[in-house]
């Protein structure tokens, strides 16, 4: 039987160590890319009043998980130290078939922990999905393969987007469809889809919501910070899903009104219809396809 060289064993250990550490390295790189903050558990910096609740739930969950981890690690180390094998002691430890109080403990305690986590998660979900407030602005966000349309309901204007062309060159962001919202005001986003299931996601909102054909989902947000932020579809929706991007501009009321006036001057008055569906397109194009096949 031949032994492997020490150098080969060392390389193998380094490879295993690299694989073990790679998730941590990749997580750190991703956190930097989205401007994550260690103070809120490496989440992206939330820019809405609602995002504070997400941050509190996230941090509370981490603190509870860390407390449980410290307790479990402490018990393991205590058992290792207290019940280690002694010198000149060849007797076996006392064997137990079962221990009813201990079994009840490690059954009931995890159930209580899950129940508490579920309770706070449900409270946060209900608050985030509460749409009873009277919005200052209502915007219909329409998803379609593979871009976005924005109907500004109160201003009665619209903006139609085109699919992004990811060339790898600078300036692509400027060609993306842009959603404008006023800072410091409650905005109601009425989310609809023209074809398949999509998902509206602005990472800086710390929440996302699906857009389903034939269904209107509503999301209310109150932005607290001006700036330009990235948005995207978070639901695999077809071949060009990765190019379904948009910009979010959080601006002052004056800039928002100016943009609405600009859309009106461009002739983008009225709201784009939501009733266009794939079945109608197929039925409309089918005679042409049949004619081409016959030729």
From TrEMBL:
Membrane topology of the entry: Multi-pass membrane protein
Residue ranges of the TM segments: 60-83, 104-121
Domain Cytochrome oxidase subunit II copper A binding: 134-262
Keywords on record: Copper, Electron transport, Membrane, Metal-binding, Oxidoreductase, Respiratory chain, Signal, Translocase, Transmembrane, Transmembrane helix, Transport
Cofactor: Cu cation
The keyword Transmembrane belongs to this UniProt entry's keyword annotation: yes
Enzyme Commission number(s) from the entry: 7.1.1.9
Gene3D superfamilies given in the database record: 1.10.287.90, Cupredoxins - blue copper proteins
Protein's UniProt name: Cytochrome c oxidase subunit 2
Source organism per UniProt: Janibacter alkaliphilus
Record lineage: Bacteria, Bacillati, Actinomycetota, Actinomycetes, Micrococcales
